[in-house]
Amino acid sequence: MDFSVRARIQSPHRSAAHFVAGEGGRRRPATSRVSFRPMASAASVEEPAAAAAAAAETKRGPSGASFIREHLRSLAPYQPILPFEVLSARLGRKPEDIIKLDANENPYGPPPEVAKALGNLKFPYVYPDPESRQLRAALAEDSGLESEYILAGCGADELIDLIMRCVLEPGDKIVDCPPTFTMYEFDASVNGALVIKDVAQIVKVVEQEKPKCIFLTSPNNPDGSIINDEDLLKILDLPILVVLDEAYIEFSSLQTRMSWVKKHDNLIVLRTFSKRAGLAGLRVGYGAFPLSIIEYLWRAKQPYNVSVAAEVSACAALQNPTYLEEVKNLLLQERDRLYDLLKEIPFLKPFPSHSNFILCEVTSGKDAKKIKEDLAKMGVMIRHYDKKELKGYIRISVGKPEHTDALMKGLKALQL
Ligand SMILES: Cc1ncc(COP(=O)(O)O)c(C=O)c1O
């Protein structure tokens, strides 16, 4: 199987006062039959702040951590990117003066219909449709796949976790194909599963280790590589659930494989509005599922996982396919320009990409982390990697032409 591009890279504590207070903040009389208020703080009931401080100092009973599931106690937290406001304060720059090329967002944002629709929300005080009917109908039209095969989520991220919650028993194994999106590994850990990282020998690994599912990403984040039909079909023949993440499919020349779920009962295809439609902040993703699987996801999902604002925004975005196409074309043009310019930087080796980002190996003894930090001081954010197979690599999202210009200016300054 040719995965050549990838192969190359190789609580708040409850105070005593809290227990004494009844619902709505009303205090139970101190003579209440059941009182968990420590004797020592009896005098402080009139001074809740002092009581809270005293209680915090004299912790009693088992530690909070002892209640946490064992496999989660050693979980490394997911490292998300910093939000604009935090970045802005740290860099001493206004958010609009920061060039964000670190999270593969779409700098053009959604079509104007989205702001209009959000401004006209009629019933924000009513819970959203648990079945996201309008959105799924719009997606059926957009994709050509009937809505009964489609389920929407709070980003593709939510669906990755939902799939794992439905499929994995603690101790089960999954396969992912590094370097890839780290959320698979993170969610696997949250769900008590083990991750096998063996791209070269998938058939053997499936036979010997019997993993439950494999996560394939096409185009892959972070190297921008794609999976061809032949390889995908070979993997689909194995006794394993295949989750194909197409978060960046629009930036490639590939057609989505959403409709394949009708033929392959072991295939799930994930998509998102974050990249194509510039809606990362509103959190809308969706998946195509075989009917034999989707039924269980419906049962297990949070009922109101897609907010009213998210559903309305996604539907509005789909109303303007011309805008989406234009923005995509602008990003593709810019990707090609960015790639050519990066090739000229003597300490970078960019990889050709089928997506809206470019992975670069940092060469000539330069340090990836230092490059990221120096660019950040100039207001340009990129992603650097310092772990495992990607140590010494950076990833740059494709932005607007002026973003590329600022990046290149920064990189050239680092050359001196
Ligand atoms: C491969 C891949 N899948 C899924 C996601 C998450 O998508 P969403 O924003 O819809 O949660 C990302 C985000 O960067 C990604 O890179």
Protein architecture, described:
This protein is α/β, with parallel strands linked by helices. The protein has 2 domains: 128 residues, Aspartate Aminotransferase, domain 1; 209 residues, 3-Layer(aba) Sandwich (Aspartate Aminotransferase, domain 2), CATH 3.40.640.10. Helices cover 38% and strands 12% of the residues. The chain contains 16 helices and 13 strands. Strands 2-8-7-6-5-3-4 form a 7-stranded mixed β-sheet, sandwiched between helices. A 4-stranded antiparallel β-sheet has the order 9-10-13-12, covered by helices on one side. Strand 5, helix 11 and strand 6 form a beta-alpha-beta unit. The longest helix is centred in the last third of the chain and has 23 residues. It is globular, with a radius of gyration of 25 Å. The protein starts with a helix and ends with a helix. The site of pyridoxal-5'-phosphate (PLP) has 13 residues, from helix 8.
Using brief descriptors, characterize the structure shown:
416 residues, alpha/beta, Aspartate Aminotransferase, domain 1, Aspartate Aminotransferase, domain 2, 7-stranded mixed sheet, 16 helices, 38% helix, disordered N terminus, binds pyridoxal-5'-phosphate, Aminotransferase_I/II_large, histidinol-phosphate transaminase activity, amino-acid biosynthesis
